[in-house]
Amino acid sequence: MKKLITRSCEEIMTTVYKPVEFVVDGLIAQGLYILAGAPKVGKSWLALDMCLSIAKGESVLGQKTLQGTALYLCLEDSYVRIQNRLYEITDVPTENLYFSVMSESIGNGLEEQIESFKIEHCGLKIVFIDTLQMVRSDTDSSYGSDYKELSVLKALADKLEIAIIVVHHTRKCKDTDPFNMISGSTGISGCVDGSLVLIENKRGSRNAKLFCVGRDIENAEINLHFDSDLKKWIVTDELSTNKSKDNIFLAALYVYIKKKIDFSEFAPGKTDFSVVDGKHYGVPFDNGVAIACYRTDILQEAGMTLEDFTDITWDEWIEKGKVVLEKTGKPLLTTTAGECDLLTMMLQSAGASLFNEDGTTNIAKNDTLKKVIDTYCKMKDSGVLQEVNNWDEYTGSMLNSEVAGVINGCWIMGTIQTAEDQSGKWAITNIPKLTNVKGATNYSNNGGSSWAISGNCGNVELAEDFLASTFAGSTELYDNILSCGAISTWTPAGDSDAYAVPNEFFSGDAVFEKIVDYSTKVPSIITGPYFNEARDAISVATTNITNGADLEKELKKTEDTVNFNMGQ
Description:
The chain has helices spanning about 10-15, 45-55, 80-90, 110-120, 145-160, 185-190, 250-260, 270, 295-300, 315-330, 340-350, 365-380, 390-400, 410-415, 460-470, 475-480, 510-520, 530-545, 550-565, and strands at about 20-25, 30, 30-35, 70-75, 95-100, 125-130, 165-170, 195-200, 205-215, 220-225, 230-235, 275, 280, 285, 290-295, 335, 385-390, 405-410, 425-430, 450.
């Protein structure tokens, strides 16, 4: 029988031990942790943000990180999906973050693989395993089995002095204790050093609470909001726990906005993209208002002028387009097949959204959307709309005089002007509106940019003053950057002399002044965190419909797809 190895109270109390090293201050120390949440709630986005932040030495969830190498085992993903996610969350790669989409299971080689990686990368600080189910060897979910398997990873984390985070699911059934919702037996939470449970307040709301408990961390409940643009969970100002001074930017930004910026000077159709719960968190600066650009020489060949295409409906536009096509052999418009920009511009021009105020989908029974798709089909069938395969063909069609016009965000003017031999042959006007649709206008938006203050900003007050005195308050600034193609969405800039200068390329028209005026007339719409997913789904549906599929069935299928992505 082996003798117990013991240490006296005095020895323990008089020995200087290496302090617990936190990978994420106050949240994740060296050891084994579990990150649990419902499917599609955003666990993987949080895991990726943590990995990137640790690799770069940047704060995450308002807490400082211990910079070092991070290993992310994305066992349910492909490298293509990982690439897409990386480009959505960062523009700058790091040498300290590694990924793998395959690994051995617990007890069958996984520990050796991680230990070997640690030998090759001595700076390893954290390993994410996404998900636990992908590395389990035992299908039994009893207390003993759960504890035994996870204890292997616990021992490995302690041996290598790293943090290992296992991503796992929660049960569907609710519980007053969020840690009881972790799928499996209590052997899981009993073995790990800490548990992080991400629970969305309301499915699809993208507001959630991260419940934290552990041996080396204080119990905490962190209120979060998922920023759909940054693809990151952001700490909100509703915390009952201590709030990091490095991450109070949401509250600070709101205060600054209320005191220093008059958002009535920006178009609502633009600012609404950065409004959460009635609060502004972004300052628009680069205009993305939709414009219709036409070759006046081609219109003249068909016996028409720009005025014939100003303040008209899409039905009128199609009929006029047929005349242009017959007399010149050129379609009025080109678009990339399977691309959703034209569809969403048409939809927003009527103030119609793909979501309701409560965040639920508005697709299957959206009469305006049905009108948009029906109009698109008529445009294509009549030949006045030409579909191409890619962006190069799209821009080539206008630069090579293959079409009579283009409808897109005002930024497309930069591309058009590269055809120097076409100077003076282009002119802009507003876009057509839907026929017999209540609230339809001749104005929409596609793109544009906004400024915000990041969570790791070192001087929030200085950043606030900068935005208030420049992009939200300086005509001089907008005059200077106009030459670079940055058209203001701050309406006072449109009254300056610089914006009133005739543009010779576009038939001597004061196009910048016109664009700012258009932007004030763009209807607001409801977007939300799943807006891009909905756009993509609508694009697929429209392609199917133009190829003969039933409209009602396709839109029902589309709504089901988006609801599934939202976890509903």
